[in-house]
Every structure is written in C-alpha cells, then in structure tokens.
Amino acid sequence: MSDHDVILKLEDVSKVYSGTVAVKRANFEVRKGAVNVLVGENGAGKSTLMKIIAGVERPTAGRILLEGEDVSFSSSADAVNRGIGMVFQELNLFGNLTVAENIFATREITNRFRKIDRKQQERRAAQFLERLQAGIRPDMLVEDLRIGQQQLVEIAKAVSLDARILIMDEPTSALSSAEVEILFKVIADLKARGVAIVYISHRLEELIRIGDYITVLRDGHITGQEEMRNVDTRWIVRQMIGSDAKDFAKADGHVPGEEIFRTHDICLPRATGGLAVDHVSLSLRAGEILGIYGLMGAGRSELFDCIMGRHGQATGTIFIAGKQVKERDTTRRIRRGLALIPEDRQREGLVSILSVASNLTLASLSRFVRLFHIRGGPERLAVVQMVRELAIKVADPAQEVSSLSGGNQQKVVIGKALLTGPKVLLMDEPSRGIDVGAKADVFRTMRKLSRDGLGILFATSDLDEVMALSDRIAVMSNGKLTGMFDRAEATEAALVAASALGHGPVPHTEYTAHD
Amino acid sequence: MTDIPAKAAIPSASSGSLLLTLMKARTFIALIAVLVFFSIAAPNFLSTANLILMSKHVALNAFLAMGMTFVIITGGIDLSVGSIVGLCGMVAGYLVLNGIDLQIGYTIYFNVVEIALITLAVGILIGAVNGLLITRLNVAPFIATLGVLYVARGLALLSSDGRTFPNLVGKPELGTTGFGFLGAGRLLGLPVAIWILIVVALAAAYLAKYTPLGRHIFAVGGNERASRISGVRVNTVKMFVYMFSGFCAAIVGLIISSELMASHPATGESFELNAIAAAVLGGTSMSGGRGTIGGTIVGAFVIGILSDGLVMMGVSSFWQMVIKGLVIIVAVVVDQAQRRLQSRVRLMQMAKAG
C-alpha cells in the first residue's frame, strides 16, 4: 500500500505477563523513511509492543523480522547494536550526571588509556543538542533542566545512536509548542535520511500532522492499519474504542441531590514555572459522578492532590456541603469527609508489607479506638464487611496485601477510603492496571456509592470509561478546565478536542468536531 | 493450570512451610542454642547469681534496642543513643551532687524521684531534637543522629571537664539519698532494672500491637507516601519514635550511674551499635516496616549471653568481637533467605489456589 520499504516486521507477536495478555497476535510493519504512528488507549499494549521491538521485553510467541531476517533480541543493547533506538516515555536519565554523560552513557568515548574523553563527549553532544535548538549546554546537570528539556536530552540521546529505527514513546508529553516544532523538524530530517520512526502519542492532531502510516491498538489487538492520508480523527477514535461495549454498570437513573462539594479557583504552581493546576473551579452534587477527562499531565492528579491538602503551596478554597474547609492538612481533610484513591497503587495506595486488614483500616483507625486501645472486635467486623461488600478475593485478611492480584489490591485501596466514611470520593484512574472482572466490580461499586449519596470525582484518560460512567464530564488540559459537558451533550470528538486545547502547535479549529 | 504441576507443588510447599517456621523462630532457636552451649561449656553459667548478673547486662542493651527498633521500623536510625546514655548519666550525677545554682545565692536540690524525672526529660528532649532535625529540616536520620551523637558526648564531657562525678550517695539533709536503688535495689528477688525493663517492654509491645500510633509506626516504615495520603501524621510518628529512643537511653543512663554510684562522661560509647545489632538479630528489617519488640528482646539476650558466656569461657575479647560480628551477619543472611522462601511459598500457594 505504499512507496516505503518495510524494514521491520512483527508477525503474530504475543506477549503474556503472569495472568494478563498484553499483546495478542499482532502484525505490525515499520517502514523506512516514514513516521509510523501507533495509537491506542491506556493499557492497549502500545508500550509493550514497543518494548518488544526495542529488546526490553521478549515476545512470548511470534517472530520479529528485521530486513527480512529472523531476529531475536536478548537485551536492549542487542537491539541498539542492530540499529534500533528508543525514547522512553518515562525519562531514563541520570539526574546527577551531565547532559553529555547521559547522552554517552554505556558507550563513553575514551582515549588510549581508557579514560573518558570529556571534551570530545561534550563536543559531540553539543552537535546533537544544536539540532534540537534547546539552549542546553552539554556540561549542565540533567536534574537542573526543566522536564521538557530533559525530554529533549532523551531525544538527543536516541538520535545520537544513529539508529535505523527510532521509537518515540510520547516524546512531546512535556514539550512546549515551540519545542514540539523543533522536534518535528528533527523528525523530518531523520525521515529524509531514511530512518524509520515509530511514533506513539495520544495527541491526535500531532499524529495526523506528522504521521505517514497509522496503526491502532485496542486491548492488545491491532484493530486498524492505514496510510495516514486516508484517515481522519473520527476513524482513529472509532478504531481506538471499537463498537463492542465494555462491561459498564448501567446508570440507575437516580437524581443527584444538593451540592456537596465545590472548589473555587484552585491553583498550584509548577516547580518549573507556570501553573500545574490553573484556576480550577467546579461543583459536585451528592450522588453525582463527575468524570474528569484529560491527557497525561493535564493536571488531574495535581488537582486531586490540592483538594486533599498534599501541597502546601496550593491556593484556592474548597467547600463541603456549603461549608468552607479551612483545614490544610490531609489528616483533617479526611476527617471532614474527603478521601482519595490515588493513581499509583503501589507507591501511594498501599503499604504492601502490611496485611489486608491493616491496610483497610489504616485511614480509619480512630473509629475503632477507645482511649488509645484499638478494639479488635469492631475492627475485624469492619474488615470482614468491607471484604464482602467489595468482593475482595482473599482467603484471610491477615494475609499480606502484596499477595493479592492488582484488581483486589485496588479494591483494598477503595475499601480503605470508604471506611473513613467520606462524603466526597476522589478516584484517580480507578481502573488502571486491573483486569476486566475487577474493573466491572469497581464500576458497580462507584454506581452503588453514588446511589448512596456520595459525590464522586473521578479522573481518567479512558474515553469509554468517562462517557459510560459520568453524570457530567469535565475536561482538563494544561492545568485548566477546558470543558464541562452534561452526559447527554458530550461526544467523544468534543472531549478529545477540549482535552487538546492549549497543547501542540496546530490551531484546533479543524476539529472542534460536531458529530 | 493443569493438575500435574499443582500436585507436584503440594509436598514442596509444605516442606517449605516447615523450613519457614524454623527460620521464623531462628532468634529463639539461637537463644536456646547459646544457653545450652554455655551451660555445658562454662561452669557456673546456670547459677542464679550469674543469671541475674547477665540479665542486668542484657537489660541495658535491651532498653536501647527497643527504642532503636521503633526507629528502624519507621525507616530511620538513631546513632545518638550511646551519647544520650552518657549525657543523661552526667545530668543525674550533677543534680545529685550540685543541684541547680540559681545564681541568687540559693541552690535547689531535688529528691531522687525528681532527678530521675528531669533526667528522663533530658533524654526525651534530645530525642525531640533528633526528630525535629529529621522531620522539619529534612536531615537524613543517619546524619542528624550522628551530629547529635557528637554534640551530646561533647556536652557530657564539658559538664565535668571530662572528670567523673564520684560517690553519688547524696546527703540526707538535702534529701538526695537513695540514688542507688535503681541500680542495686531488688524487688521480690529481681533487680529493679529488670522490673523496669519488663514494664517498658510490655508497654512498648502493647503500643506496637494495639494502638493507632503503633500501627502508624509500621505504616510509615512500610510506605511513607501511602501513609501520608491515608491521613497518618508522619511527622508526629517520627517525633515519637526518636523521643521514645531518647527516653530509653535516659533510663539506661540512670541505671548505669546508679549501679556505679558515679557518672562517667564516656559511658555508653558504642552502645548504639549493640542496640542496632540486637534489633537486627531480632528480625527488625533495616529497610523499615518490619520488626517486633519481642524479637528485639530475644536478640538482646542472644548478644548479651554470647558475650558474657564467652567471657566466662575465657575467650579473648578479640575473638569475642569476631564471633559477635559473624552472628549478626548470619542472622541477616538467614533473614534474607527467609524472605525469599516466604515469597516462593506464597506463590506456590497462589498457584495451588488457582
């Protein structure tokens, strides 16, 4: 279907992690001198597929053909030797080393005596940085750079590999629009030199602008492969989401009550300048589910952190049931009826070496205390009830929480929040990294809680989810609230458009999309 | 999962569980082993007099190790305890001998109970300094308590110009007599120090198991961020553990100067290392979140009995150090092996459950 040669081909590649299939029988072609775009929702398997190409992961089944030759990479160094470089989504840089040292990490330029030739390294690094016009000096420490600049260093590092195939996983997520422009110039330059580029991004406008070929992934399957000039945003969204509905609990048609929660003008300064949360005001009614849709880095998690009092430098006011919450620390805000289910279960949700029971009651111990003694009876009763209510699959609540599956761990985090008796529940990506069955349980629980009169704010970057579960949908982009839709009037295209406001170099008028 | 590997997993899982039980009880087994060994190898080892003497030695280390256990469970370390022992001993000695000169022609003398309370307060205060450095000024626990180690030791030496406060009998007319009771007194045949140890140990074990504060200590050590989000007051918890450690060190300072009826400013040097060793031997994990008071006490007994027994056998003190070091290393190696085995057994059980 094209005038570009295929350099790398995946045939029937599958990747299975303990219990979950991340990629199912994928066939994927990478073409020389072109930008091969890969899109899909979170958890669709994009990153896994790229890690297979970059030699970080080995496929469970299937073949990799590099220029027609059957290859298997034992490590990423192996892949690099074959001319495959990757810009990782999570920055893989050493903050305590200089830019030049980072660019040449593991392949240092040395002189005759095996001593690192610092001057030579810095001169070569400067050449690569020059092309990115970022104003980064090679002798600067990486930790002193803005995140966007760090991303550019990561890109310079990948470019310096002189790769034939260059994979970029969300390279623009932290770049300003000017930096994006420069990156696109570099990409055009690489293309002209015959480099095959694999480009992953959530930002559809970007993809349409620079992509030559597009591949869409959904739930580990490749659902569409096309030349970019034949497709439009709607096609992409359709392929990404598919027609088969997921198992969402149905709305029960209860009517939300009075306003239970309101934020006014919440701002959070970013360490690197600007605002991570930019004057966000919203209101939530009892029994209402308000979905907050946005891309990575849109400021959703930061907004939740501000509401929970995790940032001393945040400004703005919050109200619960009309009364201002003056308390500024997390402990007392929990007592006022706020509870957060954090995005990162392992780092922020659970104390993994404690038991299921201890985790469940960690935030609500004061409920079971007489004087200073934790009464075992009521505590055990509450644990057993919560385990039953949320259908947590655990043989014995005294078991370590780390022995549970991801979905059950997530239920423990939710149970912990519920035991505090919250009026407002903040859920940050509540379905991330859990299996389908547990997802359905989590969604059912959300419905039930809203019926019981809880106000629920939930942040997600999953369009499907936000459309199916929310009574209203707020969209955030770049720290700002860029849209507020009733369920009836919300369309996927409108959400996507609002989530891209303030991002990227292209004017958005092209797809303010009325479906 | 098919039937065959599941069946194969059952016997190996249960033999793993047996080994696991043995490993979990390793400190206790070690205690019994040293007791049996020395009662055969060292004459008079099991005599009542010797046992009481040994338990007094053990008690001193056990106090420090209990404070250290809480600190280590939160993921910290307290190097200053030895110096706090020294400084608190000097405070007590100074108060018995000199009282406080008010600079207006009067000097206040305190009775022994008041002196003990003031000394304990000093220990808690130094612990609070540790805690403030760590929670408010974000100094790493190792560095903060290392600094306080030097400062407290220096103050102890300054308090007497490096001399010993001798002969702390006190004067009846000033009401300062009776200081020797803590170190030499007995109740129901047991030394007072042992009674205090029993009371403090029970209180600490209760605190760890049945109070919110105890639960929070483990949570902070297991995952500080998650604890914070769950509303745990992390700074308060950390303040408490360092203050408790200081409190335990002050008790030791009091007991030692009471035993000797003298305060020497160099008392307690390198005690912190014995305390850390006892805690680690008792199963406290240096990475935080794991540990028990009971285990630590048993650990303190193993170390104490080991060194006293070796002395009684006439083993040179140089060899004693080598042996003590080896025991600590073996303890940690076994601990790591236990973790690995534990996770393997757990995976097998999960596989068995399907």
UniProtKB/TrEMBL annotation, chain A:
> Which GO molecular function annotations are given, in alphabetical order?
ATP binding; ATP hydrolysis activity
Spell out where the chain crosses the membrane. Answer: none
How does it sit in the bilayer? Peripheral membrane protein
Question: One GO term of the cellular component aspect?
Answer: plasma membrane
* Compartments where located: Cell membrane
SUPFAM superfamilies in the record: P-loop containing nucleoside triphosphate hydrolases
**Residues covered by the ABC transporter domain:** 8-244, 261-503
Q: PROSITE patterns this protein is in?
A: ABC_TRANSPORTER_1, ABC_TRANSPORTER_2
What keywords would UniProt list here? Answer: ATP-binding, Cell membrane, Membrane, Nucleotide-binding, Repeat, Sugar transport, Translocase, Transport
The record ties this protein, via InterPro entries, to:
AAA+_ATPase, ABC_carbohydrate_import_ATPase, ABC_transporter-like_ATP-bd, ABC_transporter-like_CS, P-loop_NTPase
Q: Name one Pfam family in it.
A: ABC_tran
UniProt record similarity statement: Belongs to the ABC transporter superfamily.
What the entry lists under PANTHER family is as follows: CARBOHYDRATE TRANSPORT ATP-BINDING PROTEIN MG119-RELATED (PTHR43790), D-ALLOSE IMPORT ATP-BINDING PROTEIN ALSA-RELATED (PTHR43790:SF3)
What name does this protein carry? Erythritol transport system ATP-binding protein
- The species this protein belongs to is Mesorhizobium sangaii
- Organism taxonomic ancestry: Bacteria, Pseudomonadati, Pseudomonadota, Alphaproteobacteria, Hyphomicrobiales
Automatic annotation (TrEMBL), chain B:
- Short name of one Pfam family for this protein? BPD_transp_2
Please indicate if the UniProt record lists Cell inner membrane as a keyword.
Answer: yes
Gene Ontology CC annotation, any one? plasma membrane
Q: Where do the TM regions start and end?
A: 27-46, 58-77, 83-100, 112-133, 179-208, 239-256, 318-337
Molecular function, one GO term: transmembrane transporter activity
Q: Which UniProt keywords apply?
A: Cell inner membrane, Cell membrane, Membrane, Transmembrane, Transmembrane helix, Transport
The principal location of this protein is membrane
**Origin: domain of life:** Bacteria
Cell division as a keyword of this entry, yes or no, is no
Instruction: Report how it sits in the membrane.
Output: Multi-pass membrane protein
InterPro entries cross-referenced by the UniProt entry? ABC_transp_permease
Q: Where in the cell is it found?
A: Cell membrane
**Protein name, entry field:** Erythritol transport system permease protein
Species source reads Mesorhizobium sangaii
